[in-house]
Structure formats: C-alpha cells, structure tokens
C-alpha cells in the first residue's frame, strides 16, 4: 500500500489574496459550496480538469530564503513559454532569473515569483518542446 498527495499547501500572509492570484494563473476554481472570502485563514482551490488542489494557509512568519520546493508550470496548448511569462508578469508576478537560453537558444525556463515571493518556473510548452527538443549530453 502507498500514500498519495491530497493537496499542496502554501504558507502565506494572506490566504485569500494569494489564492485569488493563483486562480487565473492555473485556471483553478474555488470548491463548489466552499467559496474563499477575504479574511479566510485557509483557502482551497482546485483544478476543474484534474482535481489537483492547492491550500493556502496563513502563517505568522515571512519567507526569508529560497523555496525548498517550487512549481514548474507549463503553458497549456496554444500558448508559448514567453507568452505565458508576459501574461504572468501582467498579473503581478516578478522576475527572479532568466534561464530561457541556458541549454541553447530558447531551451530553458524563466523563474518568476508570485506576490508573496514564492518562486516558480515557467517551462516551454509541449509544442515548443516537440519542435526544439533539449539537446542530450553526449
């Protein structure tokens, strides 16, 4: 017998604001019958397609160092990595590091941070990966 991940939990200063920021980033929604509201100390959102859930919990301490884990997100079909980076910056993400050419032209990723400072990476779309595979070490 094994375990499975029920949901991913993110500690933050304002659970409602951060859950509201991530909803349009990932296309997640509130749970039916359990809407997130300002002042809620715990806010749960879920992917309507896969059911994966993110739980935002308010904690008193602030982020002080690099995340121990982070999200690697990939654009859905019809969007490129760079288009997704621009969309996320317009939503309020901030640049952390640009690794978009680290393994060759257009091969890498962009590291951004959400409004709470949590870092995440934006990978190439599947179409971009198919059109220009990452070179394999020889």
Description:
This protein is of the alpha/beta class and 138 residues long. Helix content is 21%, strand content 26%. It has helices at residues 15-26, 81-91, 126-131, and strands at 8-12, 29-30, 42-46, 53-58, 71-73, 94-99, 109-113, 119-122. The chain has three helices and eight strands. It has a four-stranded mixed sheet with strand order 1-4-3-2, covered by helices on one side. The chain has a four-stranded mixed sheet with strand order 5-8-7-6, with helices on one face. It starts with 7 loop residues before the first strand and ends in a 7-residue tail after the last helix.
Distance between the termini: 39 Å
Helix content: 10-25%
Round the Cα radius of gyration to an integer and report it.
16 Å
Return the string of H and E elements: EHEEEEHEEEH
Q: Give the number of DSSP strands.
A: 8
Uncertain stretches = none
Percent of sequence in beta strands: 25-35%
Shape descriptor: globular
